[in-house]
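Request: Show me your protein:
***
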Amino acid sequence: MASVQQGAGLSMDQLLVSLRSNPQPQIRLAAMNSLLREVRAAASLAKFDPHGQGQSQQTQTTEILRSLRACLTDAGKEIRANAFRILRHVASAEGVYAVRRSMTLGIDIFIVRALSRDNRFDLEREQAIKLVRAFLEIEGAVKLLSTGLVRVLVALAENPEDKLRIVALETICEIAIWNVELVAECGGIRVIVGSLCEVFGRTAVGNVVVSTVVYLMDSESTRKYLRPEVELEAVISCLTDPSTSPDRMKSCTQIISMFLRTWTGIVYLSMNGKRSFRAMIDCLQLPNDVCRASVLEMLFGVLGINVGGSPPIDVRISSFENDGLLVGEREPRRNKLYHYQYVLLIVFMDVGLLEALSQIVQSENKEVAALATVLASEIQKLSSTLPSRYASNVQSLSSLFGMASNFSNEANRHFATEAFTHIDSFYEKETTIPFSDVKEVIGGQIEDAQFKLTVAEAEKIFTKDSSKWNWDFIHEFLQILLNNSRRADDVLKNTKILKRLLSFYKPIGSGFVNAENVNLDVMTTTGLNLMKVLLSCNEGVKLLTESKFMIEVADEFSKLDQINGPLPPDALFSQNRVENNFSGLYFNFLAELSHSPSGVSILNRFKIFNMCYLITELHNREDLIKAMISAMDFSKEGHERVILGKLTTCSEKEIRNFSTNFVGNLLLLSNDESMTRWCVEVLVTQIYDPNKDVRIKAKTFLEAACELPGVVEAILDQNPVFYLDAHTSGIFMRFLRFPKGFEFLESNFYVENELEQWFQFGIFNYVTRIELILDELCSRAVDASTVSTSIFPLHFYGELAKTEQGVAYLAESSHFDVFSSIIRENDQSSTDKLICLKACLWAVAHIGSSSTGITFLRKSKIIAEIVRIASSSKVLSLRGLLGLSTEGIELLQSHGWDIFPSTKPFPIALPYDMANLIDMDPWDFQVVWPSVKNNGLSFGRLDQIEQDIVKNIGTLSNHIVAKQASKQLAKLRQDQAQYFTKVSLYVCVMKMMAQMHFRLTVRRFIHDLFDKVVFDEVVFDEWLAVQ
C-alpha cells in the first residue's frame, strides 16, 4: 500500500499500535474509524494495486491485517464487527493479495468463530458474512478459501432456523460455480440439492439454486460431483409421497418445470429410457388429486399452453430479431423455448401422456378431469405441426376412442364422449363469429316497420331528465343509424332525438361534464358514435354547424387565450376540470370530426385548429397538451402532424419527452408508409435534442421500429449523423441488412471497426448475454412478473451476412474459416475453450440464418460437425437447437433430421431419432474426501488430555454417540479449564473442524467451550505454521 495521510492526528504506525495494544474500547474504535478513512481514501486515489504491489506496500498491508486480527480477539462484539467491516474494505482495495494473507494469518478462523455464534451477535455475524461475500467478488479469491470457511457456510445453510441461512446458501452456490471441488469436499453439493424444494418459496434464492444445479449438471467436469439419477429424482419422489403438502407439491412441480426449460434438464431427465419422465406421467395415475392437478398445471406451463384465459408462462420471444416483431408488436414472437416445447411434447407422448390423460378424464374430480380434457385438446392442436408418425398417434386418441365406443361401461363411455365433445368445441370456437359482432353487422338491416317502433321507443327514452336514459338502448340505436345514413337523415328531420343527445354533450350546463356514478366508457363511446352519425348525413353536418355544441366548445377554447384575461376556475379546460372531470374527452369528440372533410370544415369554421396551436404555447398546461395529443389522428397530413412536430421541438423538456414517446409509439403501430416516414423524420430530428433522455428515447424507438417495413430505408433517407453508443449499435446493425445501409456504414468506417471489435471481444460477450437471457427465461416458470421482456440481441456477423456486400466483406476477412476451424477442433477441455466454442457456434449459426449467409455453411460443409456436437456433446447446453431459419433447416435433412413443415414460415428441425439428441449414459459419481495429511504433525505435539479433548470433539460429528462425548467434554472443561484457554489446542480443533462435518448447534457448543481462549499472537502464528 502506498503511503497515506495521517488521520485523527496519528500516523499509520500509531494507528496500528492503538489497534493492537490499547485496551480502551473507545480509543480502539476511534483508531479503527481513522484507519477506515485512510483505506477508503487510498482506494479512491487508486493507491491500492491488487495486481502488482511493491514489497513495502505488501508489508504494510500485512501489518494492517495483523492489527485487525488483534481486534478480532477483543471481548467487545462492536469492535469485532468493525474489524470485519474494515477487513472488507481492505480486501476490496488490495485484491487477491489481501485474501491470500488473510487465510495465511488465520483470519478465516475468526470468521468461522463469528458465524458460529448465535443471534445475540447478529451485527458481528452480518459483517463476517459480508467479508466472505467481498472475497467472492475478487478475481481468483475463491480458489484461496479454506475448507473451514466453506464448512461453516454449509452448517449455516442446512440450519432452517438461522437468519443467515439464505445468504449462506447463495454464497455456497456462487463458490460452487468457481470451485466445485471445494464445495463437494465440504458437503456443500448435498446442501444445494437438498434445498431445492425447501427454499423455492423464496423466488430469488430458488432461481439461484436451480441455476447452480443446472450449471453443475451441464459439464462433464462438474456433474461428476452429482449423484446420477438421485438428485432430481428426489424432487420427483415428493410428488408420490402422500404426506407431501400442497405447497410443497407446487414447489416440486415448479422446480421440475424450470429444469424442463433447459436442454441440460431435458437430457438429464431422459437418462435410462426417460425414467424420470415416466415417473412424472405415473404421478398422473395416482389416486391423489392434488398431485394430478399439480403435474397437469406443470405440463400446461412447460408446453406453453394457455389455461383459463391467462397468458401462458412461456412468453414467445424471438431468438433472431428478424424472426418476429418487437415489444408491443401485433403478432406473437418466436423464441427458443418454442423448440423446447416440441421436444417435450414428443418425449411426453413417447412415455404415455395421452394414455394417462385418457384415464384421468374418468376421474370423479371434475376439476382434474377438466384439466386433462383441455390438455388433450391443446395437444391435439399442437400435434398438427408434428411429423405424421407423431401426429397420427395424437389425432387418433385410440385409448379415449376405445372408451367412447365401449357400451359395456356406460360411465367411462360418458366421460370419453364428454371429452371428445370438449375437443370438438375448440375447433368450433376458432371459426365461430361472436354474436356481438354479428349483432353490430346486421343492426342497420332491420325492417322499416321495426325501425319505426325503435324510433318511437327512442322518443320515449330521450326525456329531459338524462339520468333516466337507457344507455345500452342508445348505443344500439346509434349502431342502427351508423349502418344507414338515410335513416339518420330521417331521424334528424322528423324527431329531436339526436338534437337532445347532442345537447347532452354541450360543455355548458350539460349532463355529460357534470354526470356522476356513470359508466364513462359507455358515455364516451356513445358520444363518438354520435359524431360519426351526424357526419354521415347532410342534416347531421348542418346540426353540428348550427348547434350550440360547437359554439360553446369554441368559446371555451377562446378562454385559453391570455389576451382574454386569466382562465376562470370553472372554465371547461381549467386544470382542475381536465384532471378531475371529463373535460379532456372533448378533444376526442373533436378528433372524430377531423376524420371527414365535412368535420374538418366545421373545425376550421370555429377556428379549433388555431386554438390547438395556441395550446402548444401553454407550457404550464402539460395536462391539456397530453389530452389534446392523445386524442388527435395523425394518419394523414394536416394540422395534427404540424402541432405534434412543434411540440417535439418546444423549450420544455417534459413536453419534448412526452411528444417523442408519443411519436415513437405511433411509429411502432403504424401500417401506413406515409405515417411511418413522417414518424421517422421526427425521431431522427430528436436524436439531436439537447436533452440526453430525449435522445436516448428517440434512438430506442428507432431501433425497435427497424424491424418494421420501410423504417430503415426512411432513416437512411434522412442521412442521419449518429454517434456510436449503446443506443445506436442496434440501429447500425439493422442498417447492415440493406445495401444502402452497408454503404453508409462502410463509408463511416463502422464495418471495419465493428468487425474487429466483434472478432476480439463481441462474440464472447454475446455468449454471456445469451446465457443470462436464457437463465432469465428459465426463471419465468417461477415468477413471470419479476422478469423483464428481454429479447435476444442482434449478432453482428448475422446481420453482416444479409447482403451480398456483407458476404463479400466477411469472406475477405476469413473470420468464418477461423470459426469453422475451432468448431472442428471441438475442444471442450476448459471453461475458456468452451466459451470460445460456443461463441463460434453462435457466430456460424447467425451467419447461416440468412439466404445469403447460408452459402458459407454449404461451401465449408461445417453442418455435419455442428450436428455431431448438437447430438453428442458432453456439455449438455451445446445440444439441441439447430434450424432457426428456412435455409439452415434444409441442410439438416441429409443428416437425419426431420423438418416440421407445418411450422412455416419458421420451420423447426429435430433429429429423426430423438435418442440421438437427448440420451446420455450415467456417469461415475466422484466422492471428494478431505485431506488429513497434516493432522499427524499437530496431534503428535499434544499431551494426553489434549488428545482426549480433540478425540471427543471429533466424536461430536457423529450424532449417535455425540451425547456421551458432550458429557465428557463438559467434565473436562470443569476439571481441566486451563486447557480450553490454550490457543494451540484451539487451532488444532479448528483444523479438525475444517476436515469434518459438524452441525451448527455442535459448532456453537465447541466454540462455547473455548470462549476463554487466550490468543497469544506468537503461539497462534506458530501453530498456524504447523497446521
